[in-house]
Amino acid sequence: MNKLIEKGMLKVGQRLYNKTKKVSAKILVDGHLNDGKEKLSIHRMSAKYLNKENNNGWDFWYVLKNRELKCIDKLRYDYVKKFGYS
After folding, report:
1. DSSP secondary-structure letter at 67?
2. What is the full DSSP assignment across 5-27?
3. Phi-psi region for residue 52, left (φ > 0), alpha (ψ -120 to 50) or beta?
4. Which pTM was predicted?
5. Which of 20, 77, 70 is nearest to 50 (CA)?
6. Tag placement on the chain: N or C end, fewer CB within 10 Å?
């Protein structure tokens, strides 16, 4: 997540949403999310809303780009394609 922030693909203060936009959380400077109640990793925050112990947050969270939701896992894939795994 921090690499995506460093490259400007995501921004601190930007909101991430679930697929239906019923859940949202703000990106913090350290790459964690804040839903207004607590600060958690993308994985723990998604698990919280799915009532699970763990979850892959990359598949759960979306960002609004050009009025469309785009899965952050796709952004991560684009990052690796462009910059490698570093």
Report:
1. T
2. HHTTSS-TT-EEE-TTSS-EEEE
3. beta
4. 0.92
5. 20
6. C
